[in-house]
From TrEMBL:
EC number: 2.7.1.81
Annotated catalysed reactions: (5R)-5-hydroxy-L-lysine + GTP = (5R)-5-phosphooxy-L-lysine + GDP + H(+)
Organism field: Stichopus japonicus (Sea cucumber)
Name of the protein described by the UniProt record: Hydroxylysine kinase
Record function comment: Catalyzes the GTP-dependent phosphorylation of 5-hydroxy-L-lysine.
Domain Aminoglycoside phosphotransferase, chain residue ranges per copy: 57-244
Length: 389
């Protein structure tokens, strides 16, 4: 099936279930599932001097029948956060009355070589969600990233944690995700079972030592750690920024043209964090795990000194939610365990799906960051990250 035919199938789904017409369609990178950016240009109305251009994200997630309840709960939480002023994607209700629903992709004409790397379920069913697009740029497009944005990123994550506390619904499906997903930090100790994919002997030795530390220093203290709803994938690709002159920036110049829009950071231009996207890994877990996973991404961003960047992030987070001492005590072990987990599982998944090069997008950076952190003692890192207060 050609790219044009695929886009026609997506356009038909968008029209039939969401009444979106006159679409430009672009497939976006995704670790799993299918994401499409939809640019909608309604025809001019007699009383309008300009066209109204809208953007949405149409998501397809493989469904084996057990994930529907989880994804439905994630969508419910996204609506909860959005309605309380948090700038997250707002789900759009479909013509069938649901915010998330199941579609047979064979019948829709979307099972083909394009998604062969996704290992679609045998029944061909995917879950479908349409999200309002958040305008702006992703944080990873900024080079270098100014330190004040790390402070704002920390504040934003703490705000998410605090707002999520107001959710009173059943979080059991989210707890099950943390307990069962091998990407959750609860399962970080299991990466030692897949070490055959790591060919660098020095890196392999470091990962095994990090796993031992995690098992000895963190797992016995889980009952002492505050828990709640977490983002699960808070990284620089999922954080939206805008400058004062770009509050309404659209993705048309980059997202729709297969280009990476990299911005050279200028002191005269001040950016701010204006949104957070991709809640597909949202779960109920330990709050410090969310911080650690965020830091494991922050330490590979383009900054002069990653230790200073982490310090700013932690200062920002602590300005809105103060960490308990037990959280500070385990944060370093958790961060290095998250880095080790990212390395091993990305290599493992790539060995299964070698057609998806996006799986290795940061593989040059993670080992360097882990080795750098491993050179320091915990006391040194506690001081540099401002965790000793």
């Amino acid at each position: 099936m050609s790219k044009t035919t695929i886009h026609l199938a997506v356009q038909e789904i968008a029209k039939k279930f969401y009444n979106l017409q006159h679409l430009n369609v672009k497939r976006l990178n995704s670790y799993d599932g299918l994401n499409f950016l939809l640019q909608t240009e309604p025809e001019n109305k007699p009383d309008c001097s300009q066209k109204i251009i809208e953007y949405h994200i149409l998501k397809f997630v493989p469904s084996d029948g057990t994930l529907f309840e989880l994804c439905n709960k994630q969508v419910e939480l996204m609506r909860h956060l959005h309605h309380r002023g948090f700038c997250s994607p707002n789900p759009v209700v479909a013509a069938n009355g649901h915010y998330i629903w199941r579609l047979n992709m064979v019948e829709a004409g979307l099972i083909n070589e394009m998604i062969a790397d996704l290992s679609p379920p045998e029944n061909g069913f995917f879950m479908v969600t349409l999200l309002e697009f958040i305008p702006g740029r992703i944080l990873s497009s900024l080079h270098p990233v100014p330190y004040y944005l790390f402070y704002e990123a920390g504040q934003m994550l703490a705000r998410l944690h605090e707002l999520a506390k107001t959710y009173e619904g059943d979080s059991q499906p989210l707890k099950e995700l943390s307990n069962n997903s091998y990407w959750s930090l609860e399962q970080a100790g299991e990466v030692s079972n897949y070490m055959e994919v790591v060919t660098d002997e020095e890196l392999s030795s470091i990962i095994l030592q990090v796993v031992i530390r995690f098992k000895e220093n963190v797992l016995p203290r889980l009952s002492d750690l505050p828990s709640g709803i977490i983002h699960g994938d808070y990284n620089d690709d999922n954080i939206i920024i805008s400058s004062s002159s770009e509050q309404c920036i659209t993705p048309s110049s980059s997202e729709l043209n297969d280009e990476v829009n990299v911005i050279d950071s200028e002191p005269s231009v001040r950016f701010s964090i204006t949104g957070v996207i991709d809640f597909s890994d949202m779960s109920h877990s330990y709050l410090v795990f969310d911080i650690a996973k965020a830091l494991s991404f922050m330490v590979i961003t383009d900054v002069p000194d990653i230790m200073v960047a982490v310090k700013h992030f932690m200062n920002g987070y602590s300005s809105s939610r103060e960490l308990l001492q037990v959280e500070k005590d385990v944060l370093i072990s958790c961060t290095m365990a998250s880095l080790a987990q990212n390395i091993v599982l990305a290599l493992k998944d790539y060995s299964i799906n070698p057609g998806n090069s996006y799986l290795l997008a940061s593989m040059d950076d993670y080992p360097v960051a882990l080795k750098k952190l491993f050179q320091h003692t915990d006391d040194e890192l506690m001081t540099m990250w401002n965790l000793c207060q």
